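Internal ticket #5521
Category: modeling
Description: The requester needs a full-assembly model to guide mutagenesis choices. All entity lines are attached below as received. Residue total reported by intake: 450.
Assigned to: D.W.
Attached entities:
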Amino acid sequence: MQNYPITKLPSPLAIIAEVTHRCPLHCVYCSNPMHLAETQSELSTGEWTGVFQQAGKLGMLHAHFTGGEPVARMDLPELVSAARMAGLYTNLITSGIGLNDHRLAALMGAGLDHIQISFQDSREEAANWIAGAKAHAHKVELSRAIRKYKVAFTVNLVVHRQNLDHLEEMIEFIVQLNADRVEIAHAQYYGWALANRAALMPTREQVEKGVAIVAEAEKRLAGRMRIDSVIPDYYAKYPKACMGGWGQKLMLVNPSGKVLPCHAAEVLPQMTFENVRERPLQWIWEESESFQRFRGESWMPEPCRTCDHRAEDFGGCRCQAFLLTGDASATDPACSLAPKRSVVESAVQESSSGASVKKGAGGSSFVQLQKQNLELWNYRTNPE
Amino acid sequence: MVLYPEGAIKLQGTGREVLERCDGQRTFGELIAELQKEFGTTDPEKIRGDISAFLEQLQRRRIVDY
Protein backbone atom coordinates (compact mmCIF):
# COMPACT_ATOMS: atom_id res chain seq x y z
CA MET A 1 0.00 0.00 0.00
CA GLN A 2 1.37 3.35 -1.05
CA ASN A 3 1.21 6.04 1.60
CA TYR A 4 -0.45 9.33 0.82
CA PRO A 5 2.28 11.98 0.81
CA ILE A 6 1.94 13.75 4.12
CA THR A 7 3.25 17.05 2.80
CA LYS A 8 0.15 17.37 0.63
CA LEU A 9 -2.32 16.28 3.28
CA PRO A 10 -4.75 19.10 4.15
CA SER A 11 -6.09 19.64 7.65
CA PRO A 12 -9.43 18.02 8.38
CA LEU A 13 -12.29 20.54 8.20
CA ALA A 14 -14.60 19.22 10.85
CA ILE A 15 -14.99 16.90 13.77
CA ILE A 16 -18.17 14.89 14.15
CA ALA A 17 -18.58 14.33 17.87
CA GLU A 18 -20.92 11.41 18.56
CA VAL A 19 -21.12 12.20 22.24
CA THR A 20 -23.47 9.33 23.14
CA HIS A 21 -25.42 6.58 21.41
CA ARG A 22 -28.28 6.85 23.88
CA CYS A 23 -31.45 8.22 22.27
CA PRO A 24 -35.09 8.65 23.28
CA LEU A 25 -36.14 8.14 19.64
CA HIS A 26 -36.10 4.86 17.73
CA CYS A 27 -36.05 6.06 14.11
CA VAL A 28 -36.17 3.22 11.63
CA TYR A 29 -33.53 4.81 9.38
CA CYS A 30 -31.02 5.69 12.10
CA SER A 31 -27.48 6.01 10.74
CA ASN A 32 -25.87 4.67 13.90
CA PRO A 33 -24.24 1.25 13.71
CA MET A 34 -26.42 -1.65 14.83
CA HIS A 35 -23.80 -2.39 17.44
CA LEU A 36 -23.97 0.71 19.62
CA ALA A 37 -21.27 2.05 21.95
CA GLU A 38 -22.01 1.18 25.57
CA THR A 39 -22.99 3.94 27.96
CA GLN A 40 -20.28 3.19 30.50
CA SER A 41 -17.56 3.46 27.85
CA GLU A 42 -18.45 7.08 27.00
CA LEU A 43 -15.69 9.72 27.08
CA SER A 44 -15.76 12.05 30.08
CA THR A 45 -16.21 15.84 29.95
CA GLY A 46 -12.46 16.27 30.38
CA GLU A 47 -11.64 13.78 27.62
CA TRP A 48 -13.96 15.54 25.16
CA THR A 49 -12.48 18.92 26.11
CA GLY A 50 -9.03 17.56 25.21
CA VAL A 51 -10.35 16.25 21.90
CA PHE A 52 -11.77 19.66 20.93
CA GLN A 53 -8.53 21.41 21.87
CA GLN A 54 -6.64 19.04 19.61
CA ALA A 55 -9.19 19.55 16.82
CA GLY A 56 -8.73 23.33 17.00
CA LYS A 57 -4.94 22.98 16.88
CA LEU A 58 -5.23 20.67 13.89
CA GLY A 59 -6.95 23.50 12.01
CA MET A 60 -10.50 22.15 12.06
CA LEU A 61 -13.31 24.69 11.65
CA HIS A 62 -16.55 22.99 12.67
CA ALA A 63 -17.64 20.74 15.51
CA HIS A 64 -20.84 18.79 14.86
CA PHE A 65 -22.43 17.45 18.04
CA THR A 66 -24.47 14.40 17.29
CA GLY A 67 -25.28 10.96 18.70
CA GLY A 68 -27.59 9.21 19.54
CA GLU A 69 -29.16 12.22 21.15
CA PRO A 70 -26.39 14.61 22.26
CA VAL A 71 -28.78 16.34 24.66
CA ALA A 72 -28.79 13.11 26.69
CA ARG A 73 -25.33 14.21 27.90
CA MET A 74 -26.02 16.45 30.89
CA ASP A 75 -22.63 18.15 30.36
CA LEU A 76 -23.49 19.23 26.79
CA PRO A 77 -23.23 23.00 27.49
CA GLU A 78 -19.73 22.42 28.88
CA LEU A 79 -18.76 20.44 25.78
CA VAL A 80 -20.12 23.16 23.47
CA SER A 81 -18.24 25.77 25.41
CA ALA A 82 -15.01 23.72 25.20
CA ALA A 83 -15.37 23.42 21.41
CA ARG A 84 -16.10 27.14 21.16
CA MET A 85 -13.00 27.95 23.24
CA ALA A 86 -10.97 25.80 20.85
CA GLY A 87 -12.08 28.11 18.02
CA LEU A 88 -14.63 25.76 16.47
CA TYR A 89 -18.02 26.70 14.99
CA THR A 90 -20.50 24.61 16.95
CA ASN A 91 -23.44 22.77 15.46
CA LEU A 92 -25.91 20.73 17.49
CA ILE A 93 -27.79 17.99 15.63
CA THR A 94 -30.68 17.02 17.85
CA SER A 95 -34.18 15.58 18.02
CA GLY A 96 -34.90 18.27 20.61
CA ILE A 97 -36.16 15.71 23.12
CA GLY A 98 -34.67 16.58 26.48
CA LEU A 99 -34.36 20.27 25.66
CA ASN A 100 -36.52 22.63 27.67
CA ASP A 101 -36.29 26.44 27.91
CA HIS A 102 -33.75 26.21 30.68
CA ARG A 103 -31.39 23.82 28.92
CA LEU A 104 -31.80 25.67 25.62
CA ALA A 105 -30.74 28.88 27.37
CA ALA A 106 -27.69 27.11 28.82
CA LEU A 107 -26.62 25.95 25.35
CA MET A 108 -27.05 29.43 23.92
CA GLY A 109 -25.08 30.82 26.83
CA ALA A 110 -22.30 28.37 25.95
CA GLY A 111 -22.13 30.03 22.52
CA LEU A 112 -23.89 27.51 20.29
CA ASP A 113 -23.72 28.77 16.68
CA HIS A 114 -26.16 26.49 14.88
CA ILE A 115 -28.95 24.14 15.87
CA GLN A 116 -30.38 21.49 13.64
CA ILE A 117 -33.66 19.78 14.55
CA SER A 118 -34.76 16.61 12.84
CA PHE A 119 -38.38 16.24 11.82
CA GLN A 120 -39.79 12.88 10.76
CA ASP A 121 -42.90 14.22 9.02
CA SER A 122 -45.30 17.17 8.97
CA ARG A 123 -48.12 14.98 10.28
CA GLU A 124 -47.92 14.18 13.95
CA GLU A 125 -49.13 10.60 13.88
CA ALA A 126 -46.87 9.63 10.98
CA ALA A 127 -43.86 11.37 12.53
CA ASN A 128 -44.28 9.54 15.83
CA TRP A 129 -44.73 6.26 13.98
CA ILE A 130 -41.34 6.68 12.21
CA ALA A 131 -39.59 7.85 15.38
CA GLY A 132 -41.16 5.18 17.59
CA ALA A 133 -41.77 7.94 20.12
CA LYS A 134 -44.15 10.80 20.87
CA ALA A 135 -41.73 13.51 19.81
CA HIS A 136 -43.38 15.62 17.13
CA ALA A 137 -45.41 18.09 19.21
CA HIS A 138 -42.40 18.89 21.38
CA LYS A 139 -40.25 19.57 18.31
CA VAL A 140 -42.78 22.09 17.01
CA GLU A 141 -42.85 23.86 20.35
CA LEU A 142 -39.07 23.86 20.60
CA SER A 143 -38.70 25.34 17.12
CA ARG A 144 -40.65 28.36 18.31
CA ALA A 145 -38.43 28.72 21.36
CA ILE A 146 -35.30 28.55 19.17
CA ARG A 147 -36.40 31.56 17.12
CA LYS A 148 -36.15 33.72 20.23
CA TYR A 149 -32.37 33.37 19.98
CA LYS A 150 -29.89 34.64 17.45
CA VAL A 151 -28.78 31.20 16.32
CA ALA A 152 -28.74 29.62 12.86
CA PHE A 153 -31.63 27.15 12.61
CA THR A 154 -31.78 24.21 10.23
CA VAL A 155 -34.47 21.58 9.94
CA ASN A 156 -33.42 18.15 8.80
CA LEU A 157 -36.06 16.07 7.07
CA VAL A 158 -35.37 12.49 6.09
CA VAL A 159 -37.49 11.41 3.13
CA HIS A 160 -38.34 7.89 2.01
CA ARG A 161 -41.08 5.65 0.63
CA GLN A 162 -43.48 6.35 3.50
CA ASN A 163 -43.51 10.15 3.38
CA LEU A 164 -42.40 11.30 -0.10
CA ASP A 165 -45.96 11.44 -1.40
CA HIS A 166 -46.65 14.54 0.68
CA LEU A 167 -43.30 16.30 0.25
CA GLU A 168 -44.94 19.63 -0.67
CA GLU A 169 -46.90 19.62 2.56
CA MET A 170 -43.71 18.87 4.52
CA ILE A 171 -41.79 21.73 2.90
CA GLU A 172 -44.63 24.13 3.68
CA PHE A 173 -44.62 22.88 7.27
CA ILE A 174 -40.89 23.69 7.57
CA VAL A 175 -41.41 27.16 6.07
CA GLN A 176 -43.95 27.76 8.86
CA LEU A 177 -41.33 26.75 11.43
CA ASN A 178 -39.27 29.71 10.21
CA ALA A 179 -36.09 27.74 9.57
CA ASP A 180 -33.13 29.42 7.85
CA ARG A 181 -32.29 26.24 6.07
CA VAL A 182 -33.66 22.77 5.43
CA GLU A 183 -31.80 19.61 4.57
CA ILE A 184 -33.97 17.25 2.59
CA ALA A 185 -32.09 14.00 2.94
CA HIS A 186 -33.06 10.69 1.44
CA ALA A 187 -32.57 7.81 3.88
CA GLN A 188 -29.17 6.22 3.32
CA TYR A 189 -28.94 2.50 3.64
CA TYR A 190 -26.50 1.70 6.42
CA GLY A 191 -27.14 0.21 9.85
CA TRP A 192 -30.82 0.30 10.74
CA ALA A 193 -31.90 1.78 7.40
CA LEU A 194 -30.29 -1.08 5.47
CA ALA A 195 -32.09 -3.61 7.64
CA ASN A 196 -35.35 -1.75 6.91
CA ARG A 197 -34.63 -0.94 3.27
CA ALA A 198 -37.65 -2.67 1.74
CA ALA A 199 -40.03 -0.43 3.68
CA LEU A 200 -38.01 2.76 3.12
CA MET A 201 -36.81 2.65 -0.47
CA PRO A 202 -38.81 5.04 -2.68
CA THR A 203 -40.03 4.14 -6.15
CA ARG A 204 -38.45 5.83 -9.18
CA GLU A 205 -41.65 7.78 -9.66
CA GLN A 206 -41.54 9.10 -6.09
CA VAL A 207 -37.91 10.14 -6.53
CA GLU A 208 -38.56 11.97 -9.80
CA LYS A 209 -41.58 13.82 -8.45
CA GLY A 210 -39.60 14.73 -5.34
CA VAL A 211 -36.75 16.22 -7.37
CA ALA A 212 -39.20 18.45 -9.28
CA ILE A 213 -40.94 19.59 -6.09
CA VAL A 214 -37.62 20.51 -4.46
CA ALA A 215 -36.44 22.41 -7.56
CA GLU A 216 -39.65 24.45 -7.58
CA ALA A 217 -39.42 25.17 -3.84
CA GLU A 218 -35.77 26.22 -4.13
CA LYS A 219 -36.73 28.87 -6.66
CA ARG A 220 -39.79 30.04 -4.77
CA LEU A 221 -38.04 30.27 -1.39
CA ALA A 222 -34.69 31.73 -2.53
CA GLY A 223 -33.44 34.28 0.00
CA ARG A 224 -35.94 33.11 2.61
CA MET A 225 -35.04 29.49 3.29
CA ARG A 226 -32.10 27.67 1.84
CA ILE A 227 -32.72 24.11 0.68
CA ASP A 228 -29.95 21.53 0.54
CA SER A 229 -30.87 18.22 -0.98
CA VAL A 230 -29.33 15.30 -2.80
CA ILE A 231 -30.62 12.63 -5.12
CA PRO A 232 -30.60 9.22 -3.41
CA ASP A 233 -27.55 7.38 -4.66
CA TYR A 234 -29.38 4.20 -5.72
CA TYR A 235 -31.08 6.34 -8.38
CA ALA A 236 -28.04 8.40 -9.39
CA LYS A 237 -25.64 7.83 -12.27
CA TYR A 238 -22.50 8.25 -10.20
CA PRO A 239 -21.99 7.47 -6.52
CA LYS A 240 -21.90 10.08 -3.78
CA ALA A 241 -18.53 11.55 -2.79
CA CYS A 242 -18.89 9.97 0.62
CA MET A 243 -17.53 12.29 3.39
CA GLY A 244 -15.68 14.24 0.67
CA GLY A 245 -13.30 11.32 0.33
CA TRP A 246 -11.92 8.86 2.90
CA GLY A 247 -9.68 10.73 5.35
CA GLN A 248 -9.90 13.95 3.34
CA LYS A 249 -12.14 16.27 5.31
CA LEU A 250 -13.69 14.76 8.40
CA MET A 251 -12.93 12.87 11.56
CA LEU A 252 -15.69 11.19 13.55
CA VAL A 253 -15.13 10.44 17.22
CA ASN A 254 -17.62 7.92 18.58
CA PRO A 255 -18.96 7.91 22.16
CA SER A 256 -16.14 5.70 23.43
CA GLY A 257 -13.38 7.65 21.68
CA LYS A 258 -12.88 5.55 18.59
CA VAL A 259 -11.88 7.70 15.60
CA LEU A 260 -13.53 6.85 12.29
CA PRO A 261 -13.41 8.36 8.79
CA CYS A 262 -17.23 8.09 8.58
CA HIS A 263 -20.39 7.05 10.45
CA ALA A 264 -20.46 3.48 9.26
CA ALA A 265 -16.78 2.49 9.01
CA GLU A 266 -16.95 0.13 11.96
CA VAL A 267 -18.72 -2.43 9.76
CA LEU A 268 -15.59 -2.85 7.63
CA PRO A 269 -13.77 -6.11 8.35
CA GLN A 270 -10.07 -6.37 9.16
CA MET A 271 -9.80 -2.73 10.12
CA THR A 272 -8.56 -1.41 13.44
CA PHE A 273 -9.57 2.08 14.46
CA GLU A 274 -7.52 4.16 16.87
CA ASN A 275 -8.87 5.68 20.06
CA VAL A 276 -8.37 9.25 21.34
CA ARG A 277 -7.61 7.68 24.72
CA GLU A 278 -4.43 6.22 23.24
CA ARG A 279 -3.35 8.42 20.34
CA PRO A 280 -3.40 12.14 19.49
CA LEU A 281 -5.85 13.21 16.77
CA GLN A 282 -3.03 14.57 14.64
CA TRP A 283 -1.22 11.23 14.58
CA ILE A 284 -4.47 9.45 13.72
CA TRP A 285 -5.13 11.88 10.86
CA GLU A 286 -1.64 11.79 9.43
CA GLU A 287 -0.27 8.38 10.20
CA SER A 288 -2.84 5.81 11.27
CA GLU A 289 -3.34 2.90 8.94
CA SER A 290 -7.10 3.27 9.13
CA PHE A 291 -7.12 6.85 7.79
CA GLN A 292 -4.68 5.96 5.03
CA ARG A 293 -6.39 2.76 3.95
CA PHE A 294 -8.64 4.33 1.27
CA ARG A 295 -7.09 7.79 1.08
CA GLY A 296 -6.05 9.00 -2.37
CA GLU A 297 -6.27 6.74 -5.41
CA SER A 298 -3.75 3.95 -5.00
CA TRP A 299 -6.32 1.51 -3.50
CA MET A 300 -8.73 1.92 -6.42
CA PRO A 301 -9.81 -0.98 -8.63
CA GLU A 302 -10.87 -0.65 -12.24
CA PRO A 303 -12.97 1.04 -13.55
CA CYS A 304 -12.33 3.75 -10.86
CA ARG A 305 -8.55 3.84 -11.31
CA THR A 306 -8.81 5.26 -14.83
CA CYS A 307 -12.20 6.96 -14.52
CA ASP A 308 -12.62 10.68 -15.22
CA HIS A 309 -14.85 10.99 -12.16
CA ARG A 310 -12.39 9.54 -9.67
CA ALA A 311 -11.37 12.95 -8.28
CA GLU A 312 -15.04 13.89 -7.81
CA ASP A 313 -16.58 10.84 -6.19
CA PHE A 314 -13.50 8.87 -5.07
CA GLY A 315 -15.10 5.61 -6.18
CA GLY A 316 -18.08 6.19 -3.87
CA CYS A 317 -18.62 4.84 -0.40
CA ARG A 318 -16.39 2.10 1.04
CA CYS A 319 -18.98 0.96 3.55
CA GLN A 320 -21.72 0.67 0.94
CA ALA A 321 -19.32 -1.25 -1.32
CA PHE A 322 -18.67 -3.70 1.50
CA LEU A 323 -22.29 -3.97 2.66
CA LEU A 324 -23.60 -4.69 -0.84
CA THR A 325 -20.75 -6.64 -2.44
CA GLY A 326 -18.76 -8.04 0.49
CA ASP A 327 -15.63 -6.24 -0.78
CA ALA A 328 -14.67 -2.88 0.75
CA SER A 329 -12.31 -2.11 -2.16
CA ALA A 330 -14.93 -2.62 -4.86
CA THR A 331 -16.41 0.23 -6.90
CA ASP A 332 -19.51 1.46 -5.03
CA PRO A 333 -22.39 -0.43 -6.70
CA ALA A 334 -24.41 2.81 -6.70
CA CYS A 335 -22.20 3.77 -9.68
CA SER A 336 -23.66 3.00 -13.09
CA LEU A 337 -20.18 1.84 -14.19
CA ALA A 338 -19.67 -0.56 -11.27
CA PRO A 339 -19.16 -4.25 -12.09
CA LYS A 340 -21.65 -5.10 -9.29
CA ARG A 341 -24.25 -2.50 -10.29
CA SER A 342 -26.85 -5.26 -10.62
CA VAL A 343 -27.15 -5.45 -6.79
CA VAL A 344 -28.48 -1.88 -6.71
CA GLU A 345 -30.57 -2.33 -9.83
CA SER A 346 -32.42 -5.29 -8.38
CA ALA A 347 -33.15 -3.36 -5.17
CA VAL A 348 -34.52 -0.50 -7.30
CA GLN A 349 -36.67 -2.90 -9.31
CA GLU A 350 -38.01 -4.55 -6.19
CA SER A 351 -39.00 -1.20 -4.75
CA SER A 352 -40.90 -0.24 -7.89
CA SER A 353 -42.69 -3.56 -8.28
CA GLY A 354 -43.26 -4.10 -4.54
CA ALA A 355 -46.30 -3.25 -2.55
CA SER A 356 -47.34 0.37 -2.55
CA VAL A 357 -46.74 2.65 0.40
CA LYS A 358 -47.95 0.95 3.53
CA LYS A 359 -50.21 2.55 6.03
CA GLY A 360 -48.51 2.71 9.39
CA ALA A 361 -49.92 1.02 12.40
CA GLY A 362 -50.04 3.48 15.29
CA GLY A 363 -49.64 2.69 18.95
CA SER A 364 -49.74 4.40 22.29
CA SER A 365 -46.36 3.13 23.46
CA PHE A 366 -43.04 2.10 21.95
CA VAL A 367 -43.63 -1.55 22.84
CA GLN A 368 -46.99 -1.44 21.10
CA LEU A 369 -45.51 0.25 18.03
CA GLN A 370 -42.80 -2.40 17.87
CA LYS A 371 -45.36 -5.18 18.04
CA GLN A 372 -47.71 -3.65 15.48
CA ASN A 373 -45.00 -2.97 12.91
CA LEU A 374 -42.94 -6.12 13.36
CA GLU A 375 -43.43 -7.23 9.77
CA LEU A 376 -42.64 -3.82 8.32
CA TRP A 377 -39.42 -2.86 10.11
CA ASN A 378 -37.21 -2.95 13.17
CA TYR A 379 -37.03 0.13 15.36
CA ARG A 380 -33.62 1.31 16.56
CA THR A 381 -32.95 0.16 20.10
CA ASN A 382 -30.68 1.60 22.77
CA PRO A 383 -27.12 0.71 23.83
CA GLU A 384 -26.45 -1.48 26.87
CA MET B 1 -13.14 33.69 7.53
CA VAL B 2 -16.92 33.42 7.73
CA LEU B 3 -18.22 30.19 9.23
CA TYR B 4 -21.79 29.10 8.67
CA PRO B 5 -23.76 25.82 8.82
CA GLU B 6 -21.84 23.16 6.87
CA GLY B 7 -19.43 25.65 5.30
CA ALA B 8 -16.85 28.39 5.45
CA ILE B 9 -15.79 31.21 3.16
CA LYS B 10 -12.46 32.94 3.26
CA LEU B 11 -13.02 36.55 2.34
CA GLN B 12 -10.27 38.87 1.19
CA GLY B 13 -10.07 42.34 -0.33
CA THR B 14 -13.34 43.93 -1.36
CA GLY B 15 -15.57 41.09 -0.17
CA ARG B 16 -14.15 41.57 3.27
CA GLU B 17 -14.60 45.34 3.10
CA VAL B 18 -18.27 44.81 2.29
CA LEU B 19 -18.98 42.20 4.93
CA GLU B 20 -17.22 44.09 7.69
CA ARG B 21 -19.73 46.87 7.15
CA CYS B 22 -22.72 44.53 7.47
CA ASP B 23 -23.11 45.28 11.17
CA GLY B 24 -26.87 45.44 11.57
CA GLN B 25 -26.62 49.26 11.81
CA ARG B 26 -25.71 50.56 8.38
CA THR B 27 -28.35 50.56 5.66
CA PHE B 28 -27.66 49.17 2.19
CA GLY B 29 -27.52 52.78 0.89
CA GLU B 30 -25.00 53.87 3.53
CA LEU B 31 -22.81 50.87 2.84
CA ILE B 32 -22.77 51.58 -0.89
CA ALA B 33 -22.05 55.29 -0.32
CA GLU B 34 -19.11 54.49 1.93
CA LEU B 35 -17.57 52.10 -0.52
CA GLN B 36 -18.15 54.42 -3.46
CA LYS B 37 -16.17 57.01 -1.54
CA GLU B 38 -13.44 54.53 -0.62
CA PHE B 39 -13.05 53.30 -4.18
CA GLY B 40 -13.48 56.71 -5.78
CA THR B 41 -11.76 55.84 -9.04
CA THR B 42 -14.29 53.11 -9.93
CA ASP B 43 -17.64 53.79 -11.59
CA PRO B 44 -20.14 54.20 -8.70
CA GLU B 45 -22.86 52.32 -10.60
CA LYS B 46 -20.54 49.37 -11.11
CA ILE B 47 -19.81 49.36 -7.38
CA ARG B 48 -23.54 49.34 -6.60
CA GLY B 49 -24.19 46.52 -9.07
CA ASP B 50 -21.28 44.35 -7.88
CA ILE B 51 -22.08 44.74 -4.20
CA SER B 52 -25.75 44.04 -4.61
CA ALA B 53 -24.97 40.87 -6.60
CA PHE B 54 -22.48 39.81 -3.90
CA LEU B 55 -24.92 40.40 -1.04
CA GLU B 56 -27.69 38.61 -2.89
CA GLN B 57 -25.44 35.56 -3.19
CA LEU B 58 -24.75 35.65 0.53
CA GLN B 59 -28.42 36.10 1.30
CA ARG B 60 -29.33 33.06 -0.77
CA ARG B 61 -26.96 31.08 1.40
CA ARG B 62 -28.59 32.68 4.43
CA ILE B 63 -25.31 34.23 5.59
CA VAL B 64 -26.61 37.80 5.65
CA ASP B 65 -30.08 39.31 5.91
CA TYR B 66 -30.94 42.79 4.70
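Resolution: model delivered.
Comment from assignee: The longest strand of chain A covers residues 152-159.
Ticket closed.
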